[in-house]
Amino acid sequence: MWFKSLSLGCLLMVGITCQVSLATELSLTIPKTSQKIKLDGELDEPFWQQATKVNLGYETRPGENIDARAKTTAYIIEDGDSLLIGIIAEDPEPSKIQASLKDRDTIWADDLLGFKIDTFNDHRKAYNFFVNPLGIQMDSIEDDIAGNEDRSWNAIWHSQGKITNKGYQVEIAVPFKVLRFPNTNGQKTWNIDFVRMYPRGYRYRFAYNKVERDKSCSVCQIGKISGFENIESGNNLEVTPYVSAQRADSRDLSVSREWQEGDFKFDGGVDVRWGVTDNSVLNATINPDFSQVEADAVQLDVNRTFALFFAERREFFLEGSDYFRTSLLNLLHTRNIANPDWGLKYTGKTGKHSYGILAASDNSTAFLLPGPQSSGLEGFDNLESDAFAGRYTYDIGDKSQIGGMITHRVGEDYKNTALSLDGKHYFTDEDVLRYQVVYSNSEDPEVLRAEPDYKGYGSGNGYAIAYNHKGHNWNWQASRYDFDENFRADLGFINQNGFSRDVVGLGHTWHGEEGDTFNRIHIGGDFDLRHDYTGQKLKEKSDVWININGPYQSYISFKAGVADTWYSNERVNGDINDGNCPMGCWFNQFSYKVSANFRPVTSVQLGLKYKNGDAVDFISGIEPAKRKNYKVWANWQVNRHWYFSTDYSITKLWQDRGDVFNSDVANLNSTYQFDKQQYIRLTVRYSNVDFNQNLVTSKNDKKRMGRQLLYAYKVNPRTVFFLGYSDKFDDDNSLQNFESNGRSIFSKFSYAFQL
Fold first, then answer.
1. Is 506 exposed, middle or buried (0-12, 13-18, 19+ CB in 10 A)?
2. Pairing of strands 82-90, 112-118
3. Pick from 290, 368, 591, 664: most CB atoms within 10 A?
4. How far apart are CA 341 and CA 218, in angstroms?
5. CA angle, corner 76, sides to 74 and 82, nearest 5?
6. Contacts of 746 (CB under 8 A, 6+ apart)
7. Which residue ranges make up each domain of the chain?
8. What b/e string do you get for 293-305 counting C-beta neighbours within 10 Å, with b at 16 or more?
9. Rounded to an integer, what is the distance from CA 548 to the centroid of its chain?
């Protein structure tokens, strides 16, 4: 084809994120055995001879349902308590098998075997279970309706792998008690697919089921299995107590170099998970341990007008979080519940009805105050509040869904309530319409109302609607978001209100054929128009881009855009000077960015990003400026045990009067995995921001660094032991030496009792 001579491309996605039903005619019957499995990767138990056998005969990426280039055979059977899967992966070049010892859910670059299973037979969600050749696990929940994959979900299941002279093979046992499914008598019908990831020059995907690229779904395209008579998940009572200890020392280097040693603080609590029925789960926690064991990566927050987003990592909130997702908006961001005494959550699905309820008591309260062009975080450490969220959805037909949600947070002289109605409807296999209507009511605490720049919120509303078409080669989309200036969702993450936004876009994809250098080239563009609640135009922007996937599991992307943007001085963070725009200014902007990554060998991934173009200086005043950002990153599986990753970025903002600031940000992670259960990890986070004091008189230079050494022993996701040391460095240019001003040692132990 014409694009054979181009160079570089991108890492292929393991699956297709899609949203439409395609009934697959494949059907399997699953036998039952009374024999017990010994998980050793050998597949030498007699019952494997009676198991249902399937071949993963299709290459679905980069080829489109062509013959798989390596043979893979899967066996499936059940023993009344667990679903048993054995898979044999033959390899014409076994020496190229990528297999590493890592923590669970971090093996994405390895050879992988696994399956996805839809236990409700509704083509909407699937559990994904994958293992690498050494039996390291990765699991997730794939949601066709929400259009995402939740990799934070962790189940307790069992696996083992073995590399042979012909390839490798794995054995998997998934207890039925970790799955949710309808509690029906007799034979059950589920849906299943088997998948193999084969990373070589390209990242090949082999599967049991075909994948049609003009279908807007993934779960809907997997085949049926029947059997599982008289199985039940059981009540599955899991009790996980924890104990923790921590000591923190500090010193004020501007006064003394002597350490002020802190006392050891001990804590404890318990989490409970109870499978009330086969398809519903109750989670409860008392004095939960919501500490972040591992630090978030550093993000640059200089010259930004909107609050930064940090993902949830805490186990209690991650369980069943998919039941609270809505079609278009993030109405529940549980990191807003910062320091709870207790929490309670109930989630489940009965027939076409799905539901989730969450309640917690929080010792502190923090929420976003959004605006048309900025947002700021307000925190009240002494304001206790109670948080509640409820979500209900109803399945319509084979593919569509409608739902409602409420979030409510209340404390002394404070209250916020948000209500939502949303839906997702399919008109064809390629066309989907999503919509959401929201309403909120807010009463703010007196301490916030007393601030001089406070604006009242009261009641507010908004809506969002989006239409998407995804065909084999053509895709297009149109969307509109509209929120008035009073809308707030304090338990969610919606950091903009008082605006409307209209977007239309069009794209075309060329798919490579066998022998082509590039397996995918996508070009596209969109037009974006925004206004504030008064009708003032905020932005008119046009973008074009090209993305290329190719050899060495490579990716290259180029995007350019032109925009007319209007900025005012009415901002919630209130610390921006008038500059040259006392009422507001128009800025004509052009910018572009290039990003690429590739694997020169399977164990090494290198990447870069470069951004350049017009910007706005919000620090020394609202003035036109230029901005550059360079970022390089690398991931290296040094050997089977040692993994290293790092990224380094440089950002520069300047204008006619000189540089405004220069910054360096670096993140480093180095992990040595002793075996499947234990590792030691070194983490370093560093940032340095230098301001031009001739232009910026209100800010000091900021240099920060944090280091952490962590030992972990994990029997399963909830039976864990951590022992760690961390220190921090802070310098605002007032210290002669860059030295540590804080250090701590901490330990945690938790054990999951399965009753």
1. middle
2. unpaired
3. 368
4. 40
5. 135
6. 244, 245, 246, 247, 291, 722, 723, 724, 725, 726
7. 27-227, 235-277+643-755, 302-455+477-491
8. bebeebebebbeb
9. 23
Residue 731: band (very low, low, confident or very high) from pLDDT cuts 50, 70, 90: confident
Report the distance separating Cα 673 and Cα 723, nearest Å: 15
Token readout for 741 is 């001003």
Fold annotation for 27-227: Immunoglobulin-like (2.60.40)
Cis omega before residue 62 (within 30°)?
Answer: yes
Residue 102 CA to residue 639 CA, distance in Å, equals 11
Concatenating the DSSP letter of every residue in 365-384 gives EEEEEEBSS-EEEEEETT--
- Cα separation, 611 vs 592, whole angstroms: 6
Which helix H or strand E contains 104, and what residues bound it? none
From CA 492, how far away is CA 404, in angstroms rounded? Answer: 15
pLDDT tens readout for residues 632-674? 999 999 999 999 999 999 999 999 889 999 999 999 999 999 9
Q: Which residues are within 8 A (CB) of 256 and not within 5 positions of it... i.e. 6 or more apart?
A: none
As a whole number of angstroms, the distance between CA 384 and CA 380 comes to 8
Structure tokens given for 258: 């002597």
C-alpha span between 562 and 504 (Å, rounded): 15
CA 164 to chain centre: 34
Question: By the 8 A CB rule, do 726 and 740 touch?
Answer: no
Residue with tokens 């066998």: 514
Q: Pull the structure tokens for residue 607.
A: 């990447």
Q: What percent of the chain has pLDDT over 90?
A: 62
- CA gap 729, 743 in Å, rounded: 9
Shortest CA distance to 195 belongs to which of 24, 74, 320? 74
Cβ atoms of 20 and 216 closer than 8 Å: yes
Given pLDDT bands bounded at 50, 70 and 90, which one contains residue 235? low
Q: Closest Cα partner for 10 from 633, 649, 607? A: 607
Buried/exposed code over 360-377 (b: 16+ C-beta within 10 A; e: otherwise): bebebbbbbbbbbbbbbe
Question: Is-contact 303 268, C-beta < 8 A?
Answer: no
CB neighbours (10 Å) of residue 751?
A: 15
Tens digits of per-residue pLDDT, 348-361?
998 899 999 999 99
Q: How far is 120 from 233, CA to CA, in rounded Å?
A: 13
- Cβ atoms of 749 and 720 closer than 8 Å: yes
Judged by DSSP in three states, 459 sits in strand
| CA-based radius of gyration for the chain | 27
Q: Is the pLDDT of residue 367 over 90?
A: no
Pairing of strands 72-78, 66-67: unpaired
Lookup: tokens for 684: 């370093």
Place of tokens 């934070």: 152
pLDDT tens per residue, range 83-103: 999 999 999 999 999 999 999
**Residue of 601, 516, 524 whose CA lies nearest to 64:** 516
* Residue among 569, 575, 533 nearest 376 (CA): 575
CB neighbourhood size of 15 (10 A): 22
Residue 83's φ and ψ, nearest 5 degrees, are -85, 125
Are 724 and 293 within 8 A, CB to CB? yes
Location of structure tokens 């004509």? 588
